[in-house]
Amino acid sequence: MRKKAIVMTAFLIILVGCGTKDTRNIIEYQFREGTKGLEMQLLQNSPPPKVYENSDILISAEISNLGAYDIENSYLALGIEDEYMEVRDWNGYIIKEKGTGSKRNTFGIQGKSQLMPEGQKSAITIRAKTRTLEQQTETHTSVVALTACYKYKTILEQEVCIDPDVYNLRNEKKVCTVTPISLSSQGAPVAVVKIEPLMLDSEDSQQARPQFMIYIRNVGNGEVYSQSIMEDACGSSAISKDNINMVSIKANVAGRGLQCTPQQVHLKDKEGIVKCSMEQGVSKAGNAFSSPLVVEIDYGYSFTVSRSVEIRRLGRQ
Amino acid sequence: MMIPQSEKMNKKAVILLLVLLVAGCTSTRNRTSGGEENYRTGTQGLYMNFVPYSPPDRLFDDENLRVRIELFNRGAEDLAGSNNRLYLSGFDTSIITGIPTSGMQIPDIEGKKMYSPEGGFDNIEFSGYVRSLKEKNINVYQPVILLTACYKYSTIADPSVCIDSDPFGVTTQQRVCNWNSVVSTGSQGAPIAVTSVQVEPQPGKSRFKIYVQNVGGGDVLKDGADILNRCNPYDATGIDYKDIDYVHVDDVSIGENSIMASCKPLENGYLRLQTSGAGFMICEVDNLVGPAYTTPLRIKFSYNYRQTLTKQVRIIQSP
Q: Which candidate, A231, A162, A229, places its Cα nearest to that of A199?
């Protein structure tokens, strides 16, 4: 009887072990998609809609990196009216300078990856204090704004067709054709939305020169800045308009660098176009082949969440 | 009611015997009335396919890439010669390295014969190496690998035709054959086939309209080693439009008499096929005398042939 029980138990264990498998493939998770980067949300009642003078208030936010790039050494800035509020300290796992009374702090948060398919999510808390209202003031409505200014990167990996037969004179089977490619998102708020490949003759008659027109668009809900002025974007310094809506771009085909013009792209009405070409060319003695085009766009991004807070005189109902 | 054991055994024995008889009487071989195999049939020359999992559908970088191909000669001509070659292309050679751009020679493979009705076979392996994708900041690379075979082949057709020097004459003499306006010939164990012969007899003369078709699914190229070398996808010149859809007419003869000189339209001995793969030529025999007789109309073409096969491979960056 005991032997039977052992055999049955072993059989059940094997049966359960051989049951349904999780068919998701972790290695091949496609994390470079989506139009979001950093997402922020002020928590309910934090700050509360009404608060008294001379009292502590907590400003809490949930911060998530829903894009495909890790944020490092970026800024969070609290926008408050200095006459009515002051910052006491910052707290949160991702905050670098905890305990400071500054209105600005640095932070870092990981994005989506193969090992972290949903990106990192964290909460921060800023402890502030309301000041005493003026004698004649019973209530004052103040806006509390939390701004994130962060450096980001869009990385596109897209297979393109390289066909050295520029004029299509060779009569042979080709594994691909040179055609425009439409894209949607790459896990970042600035996206490559279209690629127009073109094969050109080179000065060297034995070479063909691939060229790509790359169309970029700000698909997020924030503002784009040049990466070099991100500290100023969350500070009080003025920002030159040349640094607004500015991205930096570089590209390569399977490690072979492309020359991009312009390298610093100004987005007009949220869109921009770059021309990148492989100056060293590819040999015409060859069949059409597919190769990965890698485009990297560096930029700064910023957006703000805010809430109104009514500051009341003590004793007022 | 219980059936006796011995009766059960008898029934089983009868069923077994019947099964054996049916199996023994089943024949899949196509025999002619003379007991000879007609091996000059079929529309293929070289047949090729990728050995399963070689290459695998998915592999990691920093690994060897092995591509093994099975080759079958399903036509009636032998494959022989160092200019018959296989090539692999379609991928970025900075990522997949070590595959020779000069290709690999197709081994000599016998065609179908009377005593070897399936033809010969062999296999060949390309070995390459996948470079690190991480160094190139690439997560996945999915090339379509293109296999190209370029080889020399020929077609021999010998349909029987009725030669009648007086096709419309009234005679009491019995004719041994009556001319048929169309002789269907089917295929001849090669990718280029003579599909039919239209006979147009006249007194003292017969005209043959010979229909030719590319039935192999590939591209027919002019013969010659130079064309075969330019069939290489890595060749600087490559094949252009004036090299394709031509077959060389080696011979058209009635009995022992060649009538090739009468064949039209030929361009320096080449018959041009349309882009649809079909073409025809008209040959004639004259100075016919005597009663009607049956004789083979022997037609021989030679050409180069190009076939391709593709397979997509997914190469992933090692974790």
A: A162
